[in-house]
TrEMBL record:
InterPro entries, per database record: NAD(P)-bd_dom_sf
UniProt protein name: NAD-dependent epimerase
UniProt source species: Planomonospora sphaerica
């Protein structure tokens, strides 16, 4: 029976594990907490993926290593390098094919659709970190691919939308956001992300390059309105935070300071192009209302 290792304790790790298990494949899900979904084919292991020696042992006999782990958002620059190094070292030692979950930060500010063929030209610390993690993996000799998601939405998502907008809309309250609410903006669901990870792991054409998770691209206001309609909530009230607002909020919680770097190009839509994922890997985006209904 095919056996896979997934690192991480979040929704994408769990969904990927359950997707593989539903197809009769064994999964070992590794996280510091030792948590994970309950399924007869899913084994839970408590370990730190930054510990290359421990992870090497846990990879024995595995067909694939999927990484869905990440440090707390405001601790990326301090903790991500060690995590990435541990994962890559274990992949190189064992020769296990390695599927990385990434995002779009490494491209930096882009005019026009963001596609996997663009150079990674980010200049901020988070963007350069994500770019460097991929560049080091690609140069390592490991059999590796990266699946890059846009902002998450839907059941289990942890993102600006799920934290700042979703609960306020459902409560009929004003939502303050750190993006332009009327511009088209790409979102990836957890389910589509898991399906792309699995599809990339099974296609010989996937290795050595990056793939974009399928997205939907409504404006934030439109996405909020669709959520409100499905939930029977009042029409959403959305207002954009100013730079001064963000600076003041950063004094209360370090998370707010992190948004400044990763805001998209002002005045332009943020659109992720997943044409190649759809054409080659055969994964497309789930309908918006289906994803939101699952959330509700």
């Amino acid at each position: 029976m095919t056996f896979h290792v997934i690192t991480g304790a979040g929704a994408t790790a769990a969904r990927t594990a359950l997707l593989l298990a539903a197809e009769g494949e064994r999964v070992r899900i590794v996280s510091r907490s030792g948590g994970g979904p309950d399924h007869p084919l899913v084994e839970k292991a408590a370990a730190d993926a930054a510990d290359a020696d421990r992870l090497t042992g846990l990879l024995e006999g595995a067909a694939t290593l999927f990484n869905c782990a990440a440090p707390p958002y405001h601790r990326w620059t301090q903790e991500f390098p060690a995590l990435a190094a541990g994962l890559l070292t274990a992949a190189v030692r064992t020769g296990v094919p390695y599927v990385m979950l990434g995002n779009l930060y490494g491209y930096g500010l882009v005019e026009g659709p963001v596609h996997p063929g663009l150079p990674l030209r980010a200049t901020g610390p988070k963007g350069r970190l994500r770019a460097r993690i991929w560049e080091e993996a690609a140069a390592s000799g490991a059999r590796v691919t990266e699946v890059r998601a846009a902002q998450f939405y839907g059941a289990g998502a942890v993102s600006p939308f799920s934290l700042m907008v979703q609960p306020r809309v459902l409560a009929g309250a004003l939502a303050l956001v750190a993006q332009e609410p009327d511009l088209p903006h790409s979102y990836s669901s957890i389910g589509d992300t898991a399906r792309t990870l699995v599809a990339a792991s099974r296609d010989e054409r996937a290795w050595g390059r990056a793939w974009h998770v399928p997205v939907v691209t409504p404006s934030l206001r439109e996405l909020s309105a669709r959520l409100a309609r499905l939930a029977g909530a009042p029409a959403p009230r959305i207002e954009e935070l100013t730079e001064r607002d963000l600076a003041l909020l950063a004094l209360t919680d370090p998370l707010w300071a992190e948004f400044t770097e990763v805001l998209e190009t002002p005045g332009l839509p943020f659109v992720s192009d997943f044409t190649e994922t759809e054409k080659i890997l055969g994964v497309t985006a789930a309908p918006v209302d289906e994803v939101l209904a699952e959330l509700l």
